[in-house]
What we know:
Elements: E1 3-7, E2 10-12, E3 18-25, E4 33-39, E5 46-51, E6 57-59, E7 67-72, E8 77-82, E9 91-101, E10 104-109, E11 113-117
Parallel strand pairs: 2-11
Antiparallel strand pairs: 1-3, 3-8, 4-5, 4-9, 5-6, 7-8, 9-10, 9-11
Amino acid sequence: QQQLVESGGGLVQPGGSLTLSCEASGIAFSTYTTGWYRQAPGKQRELVASISSDGSTNRAGSMEGRFTISRDNTKNTVYLQMNNLKPEDTAVYYCNARRSLLGINREYWGQGTQVTVSS
């Protein structure tokens, strides 16, 4: 069974840091592009950052320099290091894995982890 399980969310003060983890199971993790999305109350889900199977990364502009995505294929895990957090970073953060191979598209989502930035 394919599954993505996030962890690491919580409450942090402005300027603080958090590291989110997402462990995948049931998929050939190294062949997937993995990423983090977030959704704040009343807003659409948006891309935070993604990392492809070859390690190339993509980040939303507003998070440039603060958020870093990485992956460890030996642990089937993707990470999101978040520094200098701001109240507007408060959202549910979702892990995503997607692949298009030989015309077959696969996409999976985690259940989400809450990040709250507040003093």
